[in-house]
Protein: Lysozyme inhibitor LprI N-terminal domain-containing protein
Organism: Acidithiobacillus ferridurans
Amino acid sequence: MNRSSHWHHFAFVICCMGWLGISPAQAQSIDDLPYTHTLNCNAEQKSPAVGTICAQPKPKNFDESHTLRGELLRQDMYVVGLYRRALENTAPGGPEQAKIIAEQGAYLKRRDACGQDAQCILRVEQARHKELITLTHKLQKELPYEDIQSWTRGLVFPDGNGKAQPLEQRLLQSFDQYPMPHVTLPDGSTVFWGFLTGAGQVQSLAITDAQNHLRLLGAADDLLLAGTDPHKLQQARLVVFVRDPQALARYLPVVRAWAAADVLGFNRKCPGQDHARCTAALQAPLPIQAYNLNCKTSNGKIIQQHCALPLPQVPDDVSPGLFWQ
């Protein structure tokens, strides 16, 4: 698959995930932001461009793949898919996200200005498609694999069953999704998470700052969909690792919000219809432990109990509704 085809396929996947209610990670429900839906030919009120697109003749065999109508609909889908991805890769409510929303609005006005000229509409859609491919490459957030390896190489930590395993292996094996679930915070930090293929309850977490420097790592076992029952939560755990205890204080509210989203299965609207469930999850005894990777150990490899860090008192001022997958 060439590079252009890859991005066409990527936009298609992102868009279809939205139709199915399966959203990539996002700072809030992307559906609540402007211009995030593909055109709807069944809508009672249509913009000029949508009216023109939907008025294009349908083939008798219903195969629109090689028709002007089909290409217009396909380009609309590509544009919306890549636009949504661009929003997901920017800080929620920040100036960069606002700029992208404004640019999408301007694009739709240009498309409407074509009136009944379907070829003009197609040219405008194709131009926006190319712009968004370039923007997506620019904004794409990458997990700092080399930093994770540098932090964890040679270290050993017990897994959820008490069996010692290389920490590097434990974390990286659960970062195997593409696109990887992630969310950008208002301060520019990015939260990445993933799960072991075939074992969704084995998860990894990483947080980078605005300069993409690794600040925190985490490993979760049996936390996904654990709910708020204290007995079930006692059987789960989320272990976080830092090199600087100040990073723990800074990011613990984020970790707690992610854990609360995790026990609920992610994709919760809070504030919104899931507010009570999110509040209950934050008030539940989330099984979080923290360790200092700069702690000196007797054998230099095994992370021992004296490396544990007390969890600071922090406000629950980050919403579990940030985390979607």
Observations:
- Residues 87 and 98 are 9 Å apart (CA to CA).
- The beta strands are 156-158, 164-166, 182-184, 190-196, 199-208, 214-221, 237-242, 288-292, 308-309.
- Residues 118-139 form the longest helix (22 residues).
